[in-house]
């Protein structure tokens, strides 16, 4: 990995005007926000970030992390409280995904949209930021033709081209291969402006963050911690243990006082006054109990039932098309998957993995044949297999052979889809919640062939071991693409096909 003269100068330009650590970049003061009366996100929460600090924003899928970022950039306004952003600072926000309406734009048009006025040196700026994110492309290439990993790099570049003082990154490692993650990590380690990152990649975060903003989905408060990521996680766990021990001691004393109160009350006379004092003491202890911050919920253990009566070959792939040096080439292979066989497809960003999986899932891939009557369960990284206008309930019911509302609600609950969410539109969900809905659909659909494109994207790290276990136990045929080695290591893989070889 190396940086050229232009990229070094660009980094230097970012870091040469660092403000004093005493300057506040962002301050929330008793901020409350809700989308509706039954969907509160923040309740009188306060925190502040100094210029030059790097923080990660943590919280459960759907807790409202992206909402906080939208409050910071001003696209949402608080219902109560105040938000201070240093008016001298420029903010840029790299969102999780490129909006669908921007997919038809050319590369130049995509970057031009980052500015409110015409930039006459736009091509020079594009060249500089593409160098930073290690991406080569022509100005006229359509955004929709870039791979998921390349689009992740474009999102980062779209934020950097604005030369921000506050850089906000929402799941920047999604879809990136290891080279891309290493490149991004190296950049952020040298970047000395203010940075807020949402990510579920613990190793990535631990390389550069100064602390954690933790959004508690239960109390709707933000807790601020100082220290590297792993230290903060340990601190949070230790704090919970201390609070639980303290409450356990209170519980013991409360039970003792209630027992004494009952004993003295039965004695009658003046003993009743003693009993009353005992009860008052027990009530005071109840009030003194610490409101222990509950851990994020993890999804329940689950299984994806395979289609019944799977016999013989499920899919055969004799050739496939990949992208090399900006050209499509055909590659001869010999892949045959039967029941209980798992295939891992690997290769760098831009080689065509997502396109290949899409063609396999649709049955349009030349050189590949799926046996008739085989049901395909397709997890697509951009969730475009979901109808965003559907409610969650309708989306889940759509894949069920037999409509069973009790079963549907039970499965939904296991994926943390609460009763207040099940009738919400897919479009209103966070990206992480869309991922959980996609897994619920796979479970209810009972496919014979699973095709999974980056299934860890946007998913809370607490859920990943449970998802890996379900995939490891899946008894149908499976084709998996993932750039997360720690996740893949937990899944039985029978064959690996490296598209770059």
Using DSSP, what is the number of strands? 17
Shape descriptor reads: globular
**Content of β-strand:** 15-25%
Q: What count of helical segments does DSSP give? A: 15
How many domains, in number, for the residues? 3
Strand order of the largest sheet: 5-6-7-3-8-9
The helical percent reads 25-40%
Q: Write down the CATH class of the largest domain.
A: Alpha Beta
CATH homologous superfamily assignment of the largest domain: P-loop containing nucleotide triphosphate hydrolases
Give a short account of the largest sheet. 6 strands, mixed
Mean pLDDT: 85
Low-confidence segments: 1-21
The helix-and-strand class reads alpha/beta
CATH fold-type name of the largest domain: Rossmann fold
Radius of gyration: 26 Å
How far is the first residue's CA from the last residue's CA? 21 Å
The name of the CATH architecture of the largest domain is 3-Layer(aba) Sandwich
Please render the helix and strand layout as text.
Blueprint: H1 5-15, E1 24-34, E2 40-50, E3 54-59, H2 65-73, E4 80-85, E5 91-94, H3 107-112, H4 122-132, H5 148-160, E6 166-170, H6 178-190, E7 194-198, H7 202-206, E8 211-215, E9 222-226, H8 229-265, H9 271-288, E10 313-324, E11 327-338, E12 342-346, H10 353-362, E13 368-370, E14 376-379, H11 392-398, H12 405-414, H13 431-445, E15 449-453, H14 464-472, E16 477-481, H15 485-488, E17 495-498
């Amino acid at each position: 990995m190396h940086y050229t003269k232009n990229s070094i100068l660009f980094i230097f330009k970012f870091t040469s005007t660092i403000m004093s650590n005493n300057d506040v970049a962002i301050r929330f003061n008793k901020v409350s926000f809700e989308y509706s009366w039954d969907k509160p996100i923040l309740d009188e929460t306060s925190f502040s970030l100094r210029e030059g600090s790097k923080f990660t924003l943590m919280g459960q899928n759907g807790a409202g992390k992206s909402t906080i970022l939208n409050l910071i950039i001003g696209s949402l306004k608080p219902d109560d409280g105040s938000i201070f952003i240093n008016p001298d600072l420029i903010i840029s926000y790299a969102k999780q995904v490129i909006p669908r309406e921007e997919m038809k734009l050319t590369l130049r048009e995509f970057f031009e949209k980052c500015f409110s006025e015409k930039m006459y040196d736009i091509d020079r700026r594009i060249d500089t930021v593409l160098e930073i994110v290690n991406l080569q492309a022509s100005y006229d290439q359509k955004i929709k033709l870039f791979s998921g990993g390349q689009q992740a790099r474009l999102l980062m570049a779209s934020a950097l081209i604005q030369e921000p003082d506050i850089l906000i990154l929402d799941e920047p490692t999604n879809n990136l291969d290891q080279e891309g993650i290493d490149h991004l990590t190296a950049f952020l380690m040298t970047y000395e402006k203010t940075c807020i990152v949402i990510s579920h990649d613990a190793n990535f975060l631990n390389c550069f963050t100064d602390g954690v903003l933790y959004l508690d989905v239960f109390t709707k408060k933000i807790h601020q911690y100082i220290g590297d990521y792993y230290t903060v996680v340990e601190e949070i766990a230790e704090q919970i243990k201390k609070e639980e021990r303290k409450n356990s001691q209170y519980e013991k004393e409360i039970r003792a006082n209630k027992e004494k109160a009952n004993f003295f009350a039965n004695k009658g006379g003046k003993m009743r006054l003693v009993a009353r004092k005992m009860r008052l003491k027990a009530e005071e202890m109840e009030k003194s109990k610490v409101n222990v911050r509950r851990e994020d919920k993890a999804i329940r253990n689950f299984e994806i039932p395979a289609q019944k009566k799977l016999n013989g070959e499920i899919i055969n792939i004799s050739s496939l098309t990949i992208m090399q040096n900006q050209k499509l080439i055909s590659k001869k292979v010999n892949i045959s998957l039967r029941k209980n066989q798992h295939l891992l497809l690997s290769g760098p960003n831009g080689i065509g993995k997502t396109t290949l999986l899409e063609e396999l899932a649709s049955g349009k891939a030349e050189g590949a044949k799926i046996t008739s009557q085989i049901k395909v369960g397709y997890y697509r990284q951009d969730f475009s297999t979901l109808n965003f206008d559907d409610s969650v309930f309708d989306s889940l019911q759509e894949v069920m052979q037999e409509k069973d509302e009790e079963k549907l609600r039970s499965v939904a609950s296991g994926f943390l889809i609460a009763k207040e969410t099940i009738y919400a539109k897919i479009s209103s969900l966070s990206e992480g919640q869309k991922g959980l809905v996609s897994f619920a659909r796979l479970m209810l659909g009972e496919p014979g062939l699973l095709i999974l494109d980056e299934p860890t994207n946007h998913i809370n790290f607490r859920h990943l071991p449970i998802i890996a276990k379900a995939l490891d136990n899946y008894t149908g045929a499976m084709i998996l693409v993932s750039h997360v080695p720690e996740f893949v290591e937990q899944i039985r893989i029978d064959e690996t096909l490296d598209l770059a070889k």
